[in-house]
Amino acid sequence: MYFTRMHQERSYVLALENTGRIEGMYIGDGEEKLSFRQYDRYLLLGGQGHRTGENKSGGCYQKLKEAAQAYYPDSRVAACWSAQDCITADSIPFIGAYTSDRPGWLVASGFQKWGMSSSMASAMLLCDKICNIENPYAETFAPSRFSTEEIPQIARDSGHAVKGLAKRFFHVPEETANVLKRGYGAIVETSQGKMGVYKSEEGEMFKVDIVCPHLGCELTWNPDEQSWDCPCHGSRFDVRGNLLDGPAQEGIQYE
């Protein structure tokens, strides 16, 4: 049941050239958070994070490019990519025994976008556990912990799941496949019912089942990454229905 105690978020990064060098790492605050970090000759500009499955309008990369032009007018985008992160309700990673009845199973998750530092903490905690060495921080990160402070966030996450499930039954698509623009994806109404359709720039149609095989939520189209994302628990699929991210364990190819 880890998927009920965490939600998943997407975040985006541009690798910029011709910006000059900065020392250190900088993270902004406020609604439009940006991060800046140097890697070799590239400045990594990150931001535009959102909950997985909630990027219907798109434009995340474009907004980062606009920020890059505002701060570094002479810069050039050399590469761009995105990442998915698990977020726990109390903002502390789950590191330790996966479950009490599987003593040989260990877990490290919920790093909340702090993968490099949390992975080092995980290595230390799990190494001590395997070697039967008592670690003073093990209880803090134990996956079996539970605090009443988690309840509000778990309730909000459950609300998102209920909303995603309800859309499957009450959402009526406004588009049909024949009017879908090239390079776009959408949930459309067909004679066989609702399905997800992506039309490539060459006009080829890719059809998928829009029901997430994990727990049945209706998927949403992510225009920035051309993927089908689950707003309930964060599973993701490409335009051909292949699985990209869990907790789903299978794809959504349309039969």
TrEMBL record:
One of its GO terms (cellular component) is membrane. Its cofactor is [2Fe-2S] cluster. GO terms for molecular function: 2 iron, 2 sulfur cluster binding; metal ion binding; monooxygenase activity; oxidoreductase activity, acting on paired donors, with incorporation or reduction of molecular oxygen. Residues 197-255 form the Rieske domain. It comes from the Bacteria. Keywords: 2Fe-2S, Disulfide bond, Iron, Iron-sulfur, Metal-binding. PROSITE patterns: RIESKE (PS51296). It holds the Pfam family Rieske. This is Rieske domain-containing protein. The lineage of its organism: Bacteria, Bacillati, Bacillota, Clostridia, Lachnospirales.
